[in-house]
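To illustrate the input format used throughout this study, we show a single complete record. The first block contains the structure-token representation of the backbone; no residue identities are included at this stage. The design step must infer an amino acid for every position from geometry alone.
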């Protein structure tokens, strides 16, 4: 894994630096560089981030616990190859959280307990990214949209349950951004906003469920070249 530039991370030696390396490396993995299967050598990462190997090792351990990195015999840490089982787990977990959360969001917004203004702004930002052809920014807004929908449920446990999935969602969406047209995502998000703002709880839940399931097949198909056995 070759890098032309170093990236200084903020924080003190130990946990603070490890957090900085973790965030920077996670962002790199989500962005697709290094790709699934690529080795993550401690020495090279230490030089890249201008830190000792201790925070690098801590960051790699954290990424491994979150499913982004795996340790292989004779190779060390590598970016975890994506499997069909990974996709199934992610989509199944989202189905357990998002439809119910979206239903609650519609009820709370309709009752005046929450405002959908931030959700509508994220949608508007997605539409601007789509019009400008800004795929990476559009994907980031896509993930933010789902996070905000769950936040509107008012259920902190659901929010915390979704948080570990957000990075994986963005990672998968970036690998498969051509699986479904971005215009389809934006249209379905618009329908979700309308249902939430209109207080149509059951419709919102059904749309959230359908939105997730409609993405499953195309994403699995698009991931074909990346999927590990």
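Output of the design step:
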């Amino acid at each position: 894994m070759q890098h032309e530039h170093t990236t200084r991370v903020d924080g003190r030696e130990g946990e603070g630096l490890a957090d900085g390396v973790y965030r920077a490396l996670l962002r790199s993995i989500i962005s697709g560089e290094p790709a699934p299967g690529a080795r993550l050598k401690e020495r090279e990462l230490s030089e890249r981030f201008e830190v000792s190997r201790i925070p690098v090792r801590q960051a790699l351990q954290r990424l491994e616990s979150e499913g982004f990195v795996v340790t292989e015999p004779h190779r060390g840490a590598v970016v975890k190859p994506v499997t069909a089982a990974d996709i199934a787990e992610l989509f199944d977990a989202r189905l357990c959280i998002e439809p119910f959360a979206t239903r609650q969001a519609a009820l709370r917004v309709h009752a005046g307990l929450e405002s959908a203004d931030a959700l509508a702004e994220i949608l508007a930002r997605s539409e601007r990214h789509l019009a400008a052809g800004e795929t990476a920014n559009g994907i980031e807004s896509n993930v933010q949209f789902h996070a905000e929908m769950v936040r509107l449920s008012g259920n902190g446990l659901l929010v915390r349950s979704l948080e570990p999935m957000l990075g994986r969602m963005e990672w998968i969406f970036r690998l498969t951004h051509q699986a479904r047209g971005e215009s389809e995502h934006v249209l379905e998000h618009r329908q979700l906003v309308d249902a939430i703002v209109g207080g149509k709880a059951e419709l919102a839940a059904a749309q959230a469920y359908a939105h997730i399931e409609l993405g499953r097949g195309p994403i699995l198909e698009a991931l074909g070249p990346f999927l590990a056995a």
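Structural context for interpreting the output: The radius of gyration is 19 Å. The chain has two domains: 15-80, 83-228.
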